[in-house]
TrEMBL record:
It comes from Pseudorhizobium endolithicum. SUPFAM superfamilies: Restriction endonuclease-like (SSF52980). It comes from the Bacteria. Residues 1-85 form the DUF559 domain. Keywords: Endonuclease, Hydrolase, Nuclease. The keyword Nuclease applies. This is Endonuclease domain-containing protein. GO terms for molecular function: endonuclease activity. InterPro entries: DUF559, Endonuclease_DUF559_bact, Restrct_endonuc-II-like. It holds the Pfam family DUF559.
């Protein structure tokens, strides 16, 4: 995921890894664009994990962030889909359109 996000750097994207936001730590965050990318492992598939994610996402959204969530398998098996989804949400903040 990190290498995908770094590909957007020449266009002005400034994602950071493991960024504290309130009581939470975002996997990847571009603070000025208010965009968060989360990559979820198996722990997010339990009732407790889903409940935690709902509270966390509600807090982050209340702070003006857009939260994009992907499963580990999506990042590994469908990287084009993941990249295009992130690009679509990031595009209003990029210096120029990607081709």
């Amino acid at each position: 995921m990190w290498s995908m996000l770094r590909d957007l750097r020449p266009y002005g994207a400034r994602f950071r890894r493991e960024t504290p936001i309130g009581p939470y730590i975002a996997d990847f965050a571009w603070l000025s664009a208010r965009l968060i990318v989360e990559v979820d492992g198996d722990s997010h598939e339990s009732d407790i994990g889903r409940s935690h994610d709902l509270r966390r996402d509600a807090f982050l959204k209340s702070q003006g962030f857009t939260v994009l969530r992907f499963e580990n398998a999506q990042v590994l098996e469908r990287p084009d889909f993941v990249f295009l989804t992130v690009e679509r949400h990031a595009s209003p903040f990029l210096k120029r359109e990607l081709k």
